[in-house]
Amino acid sequence: MSSGETLVIKNAHIVFPHHIIDGSIVIEGEKIVSITSSAHIPSDAKIIDAEGKYVMAGGIDVHAHIHDVNYTHHEDFEHGSIAAIAGGITTFINMPLVTDVISAQEINELRKIGESSCVTDFGTNAGNMSEARIDKVPEAIKSGVGAFKAFTCPPYHLSPLGFERLMSVIKQYNGVLMVHSEDYEIITYLADKFQKEGRNTIFDYLESRPALAEAEAIRRLVLLAESTRVKLHIVHVSSKMGADVIRDSKKHKNVDLSAETCPQYLVFTKEDAKKWGSYIKMNPVIKTEVDNAALWHALRDGTIDMITSDHAPGTKEEKEIGNENIWKAWGGVPGIETMFPILLYETIVNKRLSLQRLTEVISFNPAVRFNLFPKKGIIAVNSDADLVIVDPKNIKQIKNKDLHYKCGWTVYEGLYSLPIEYTISRGEIVFEKGEIYAKPGRGKFLSTSPLKV
């Protein structure tokens, strides 16, 4: 189906952030033109009968390491965007991995690659920020980038004074500062100590990055953000301690604060390292069942605003080297294709969230925070027709052979999910019952800048 035709989804349970209705959605071209309980169906329209199924806004992943020009053996725009639509993600924001994406030239070069390769819409964050490149913030904003990634820890550690300066500049342009928050002193001390002691297993690595490191880094960032008035976004919250600091800060600090977590911190614990070994190395590390439960609670009560994948695959060889020495293994896992299906299972079957809250944390809130709303993130008249259709009875186990990643592996294999049946991007059916219909180059670059770029 081309994006110029009329598409009607009828008999659907349509999920909004605060309610669910039964009805039909009429799409003309790239936009939703009608949401009604009794839609008139044009004679030449393509019809999808969604009886008994849910229709939700397409997922928005604002933290996915999809394309690094020097690491395309890990992932690239074509494979990563195909995996995205197979998993119901209709928009992703590329997160810089190793190679800087900060200047106008770097942003525009990445944009050109994405526009020629992506099958769905995309943007990019800027990073990894250093003190030497803070002066590039204005040109990044003018190039369509509204969010900037920085670290409180290696490998891109920024000092507290560096953070204060960066925050002040970002605030001038009403941008968002995204921070990997683990305390530099704690994790460098433990990593050095354990390596000197010859402690080289995955369990040693898990112990080297405790929840205290996350909580302490967030606490310090909140103080700086309260002073500078910047929009602060804490990425991949992994612990109860971290969530508790965020909750307390939102209640008692005068700070513009948002936060995300990821599926890996909701479904895995340290026990899973017995099965997956170095494959499950990531930063921050997976923790305990207590932390899992606390993060689900934080999603329900609004402490954590959204869910992202932190998609960051490495090759099998780069992971398996960790079986001899975990400190040498690549840190990161693929996750953009499995995120939404896992969360649907946890929501519909295990009742972890309501469907209304799920659409908030995977679509609506990311769109609002990162300047994509109301074009994206909502089922509404005149919004982009970015939709997914899900059959709540179609429970399946995740199998690596069904996924579209370049890396060829997943730590989510064997987990239960509710697969996406249809993915619709700007009115076009791009994924249907396991088949990819989108072609590279149809994806559009999306500005997340607070300016009209």
Structure description:
It is a single chain. This protein is an alpha/beta fold. It has 2 domains: 6-55 and 384-436, Urease, subunit C, domain 1, CATH 2.30.40; 58-369, Metal-dependent hydrolases (TIM Barrel), CATH 3.20.20.140. 32% of the residues lie in helices and 20% in strands. The chain is built from 14 helices and 19 strands. The chain has helices spanning 77-86, 104-117, 137-142, 160-172, 184-196, 202-207, 211-228, 240-252, 263-267, 273-276, 289-301, 316-320, 339-348, 355-369, and strands at residues 6-15, 20-28, 31-36, 46-49, 54-57, 59-64, 89-94, 121-124, 147-151, 176-180, 231-234, 256-261, 306-307, 387-390, 396-397, 416-417, 420-425, 428-432, 435-436. Strands 1, 2, 3, 4, 5, 14, 17, 18 and 19 form a 9-stranded mixed β-sheet that branches. Helix 4 packs across helix 7 (211-228), helix 7 packs parallel to helix 8 and helix 8 packs parallel to helix 11. It is globular. The relative contact order is 0.18. The mean pLDDT is 97.
At the fourth level of CATH, the homologous superfamily of the largest domain is: Metal-dependent hydrolases
The overall average pLDDT, rounded, is 97
Structural class: alpha/beta
Question: Share of helix among residues?
Answer: 25-40%
How far the N terminus sits from the C terminus, by CA atoms, comes to: 30 Å
What is the CATH fold-level name of the largest domain?
TIM Barrel
Q: Over the alpha carbons, how many angstroms does the gyration radius reach?
A: 21 Å
Shape, principal axes of CA atoms: globular
| Counted beta strands | 19
- Overall CATH architecture of the largest domain: Alpha-Beta Barrel
Name the poorly predicted regions. none
The major beta sheet can be summarized as: 9 strands, mixed
How many helical stretches? 14
In total, the number of domains comes to 2
Strand content: 15-25%
CATH class of the largest domain: Alpha Beta
